[in-house]
Structure formats: structure tokens, C-alpha cells
Amino acid sequence: MNARMRDRGARRLGLAIIACAVVALALFGGSAASAPRATPTTEVKLLTLPIANTFPLDLGVKKGFFTAEGIEIKKTVVASGNDVILGLGNNNAEVGFGGFVPFMIGSTGGIPLQLLTASEVEGTSQADNWQNILVKGSSSIRTPRDLAGKTIAVNALKGVGEVMIKAAMQKLGISPTSFRLTALPFPQMRSALNNGQVDAIWTPEPFLSQALNIDHARIVMAPGPVLGKFFPIGGYAAKPSWISSHRATAAKFRRAMNRSLLYAQSHPQEIREMLPAGTQNVRLPIWTTIVNRAQIQQLATYARRYDVITKAPNLKQLIPDGIASGLTLQGSVKAKTVFLRVDGKAVTKLAPGPYNIVVADTSKKNAFAFVGPKVHRRTKVKGVGRVTWPVNLRKGVYRYWGTAAPGAKKRITVG
């Protein structure tokens, strides 16, 4: 990338990395290194954010998944996804964790990027989402429409927050120009809300639970679920030039990171144990190794609509065919009923391929069963909570039912 394009990227993305990173480093620490070291070992410099979404990386390092691939992670924490992209553009790191919107900004602004792995998706409602808009408990703001004329803090302008908030507001019939956005690092948002510097904050975990439980803040909106169930947020990316010249390392990183994501999703308690004291009961993201391409295209359309990017990104370059594409299915277990949906719609037919089945179980007397070619899954009858099953569906017939009514099986045709 020439100097002119780098300068343009800096102007487009630029926030001061160093000052904000100091705050983040104090909260989350600044490095993760695999130990004991494998021989030979390749060091990968990685830029990341001070949010709970990135903890599968740390857990994977702790469990030795990266060591097993001969990789040593050296991470630096910065304030926003835009800072990650700027750092990648300046060759300060090889791999960066960030949102798909900053990835699109980089890809259309002179810093081409390619996804190595997915990371997380949002939930299905305010109740289970980990990244929401909050207001003070005493605030007169009760609904999204009440945010008109108010100031909302996001961690970066022209980023994930701006696009998702504006798109969600417009979908609810509220003008995306009726409110103001201001940039603040996540660790500073609670203080800004409490002292009246801003009227609302858009914040992820662990800051969301801290605001709810310590400050008695209230959720007024969950932008992601307004746009779609399990809406994609981010992943790990690198410049195509680095990937092409380090194919083996890139493949090893992808394997270790995907293993870390799947392990974190199935071992939430180990993630909670890594969180700062007093924040272990946060709402964890849904980590995934698959990418919903239709929703990514939808996100790109929003980013273009709100002038966050000046042209449509090359999504085939950003998300190549080698990255798993699929859908997340929403399952639910209640006392006498179960259902399985895609973005709120009942499932009867699916194409073969990888899927995540996320089941919210609220019943101690009923369980969710899903059976078909090479798949046999069931929740615990007395267990409640959320479980995630990565599955690879083949051509054939799959059935799901509630164990409280085993005769009422529902059919899904894959083919």
C-alpha cells in the first residue's frame, strides 16, 4: 500500500491508538503467550479489543491449542476495530480481531483484508443479547423513539455501532439522523453515562453487566436482534498479502482459533473464570466458526447507505470460499413445546452444509431432541440454559421434538 493510500486510511479510521490502549491494557492485560513453547514456534502479532468477545483466544492459548500448532500469540489491545485496521495497514501486526464494518472500511479504503476465522454473533432479543444500548435507571428514555435528540456513545464513529444503531432505528421507523453519536472507549462509557456526559451508551460485555448490576442502568434497545437473529459482528482477519506469503501459518492460526471458539462455546464456565472479579455472570456472546453471507451482505448495504463506506466491498475477497458459510438455527424448549427457526421463521427445508443450532432451554421437564443422518443431539431434561451444537447436515430427513411429547416430531428436509 502506498503512502497516500495509507494516509487516507489513517484519516478515515484514525483514533489515537496508544492513549486508549493504555486503559484497555490496564483492564484486560496486554499479551497472551502460549506455554510451554512448541518447537519450532512462529510468532503471530495480533491486535484485539478490550471486550469479552475475544476471550476464546486467551482460553485457546491457555489450553495449548496454539502451541499445538506451533504458534505463539503476541497480542496488543486497542480501543476500536478501526484502530485494529489502521494497525494492520501500518504493519504493526499480522492478524487483527474486529467487526465486519471496520473490515469493510479497510477493504474499500486501501487496506485489503481477508477473513481468517469468524468469531461471534449477537443474540435474539434484549434479554439474551450481550451488546445493547443502555440509559441511566432514572432516565426518562423508555423506548428507542425517546432517543431522538439524545447523544449515544459508541466506541468509534464510522464503525459497527454506528451502522447497526442507525440501521436498527430506521427499521423501527426512526430517522437515523434524529440522534447524535459520540466516540468513547468502552471502559469510559459507564462514567460518561453516570455523570451526564451522554444520554445513552452502546456497550458490550463485561461493561454491559457492570452498568446493569452496579449502576442500575436499563436496556432500551438491542440493535443487533432488531436487524436479525444471531446477527454477525466480527472475526479475525489479515491482509491477503500476508496470508499468501504465510499460508501454513495462516492455516494453523485458523485451526487453532476455530478450535478455541468451539471449545469456548461449549465450556462457558472456563470463560467466566477468566473475567475480572465481579463480572463472571455476564451475558456471553455466541461464538461460531460459520459466517452468514446473506447477513454480511445486508450489513454491507447498511454501511454504504450511511456513508461509512464509499463503495460496496469485495465480499468474495473479504470472505473467501475457504471460510465456512452457514446459518445459525434458533431452537427453544418450553414446558410443552419446542421450535426450530431461522431468523424467526419456521424451518422445513435446508441446504446441506454447516450449521449452528442454538437451543434456549427454559424447562426442567422437557428436552429438545434433533436427530438425522450423522446427527443425534439432545438437551438434558432437567437442564436449563443455552446450548450450541455445531452440526454438518447432509442430504436426508432430520426430525426434532420435545421429549415431553415424543410423538409430535417435526420434519426438516435437507437437500
Radius of gyration: 21 Å
**Overall tally of domains:** 3
Q: In angstroms, what separates the terminal alpha carbons?
A: 44 Å
**Helical element count?**
15
Taking pLDDT < 50 over at least 5 consecutive residues as the criterion, the unreliable ranges are: 1-31
The percentage helix is 25-40%
CATH topology of the largest domain: D-Maltodextrin-Binding Protein, domain 2
The CATH superfamily of the largest domain is: Periplasmic binding protein-like II
Q: What structural class do helix, strand and pairing data support?
A: alpha/beta
Major sheet: size, sense and barrel closure? 6 strands, mixed
- Beta-strand fraction estimate: 25-35%
Secondary structure tally: strands? 21
**CATH architecture annotation of the largest domain:** 3-Layer(aba) Sandwich
Which class of the largest domain in CATH terms? Answer: Alpha Beta
If you average the pLDDT, what whole number results?
A: 89
Based on CA inertia axes, which overall geometry fits? Answer: globular
Structural overview:
Helix 1 packs antiparallel against helix 5, helix 3 packs across helix 12 and helix 5 runs parallel beside helix 6. The N terminus is likely disordered. The protein has a 6-stranded mixed β-sheet with strand order 2-1-3-10-4-11. With 415 residues, it is α/β, with parallel strands linked by helices. It has 3 domains: 210 residues, 3-Layer(aba) Sandwich (D-Maltodextrin-Binding Protein, domain 2); 97 residues, 3-Layer(aba) Sandwich (D-Maltodextrin-Binding Protein, domain 2); 88 residues, Immunoglobulin-like, CATH 2.60.40. It has 15 helices and 21 strands.
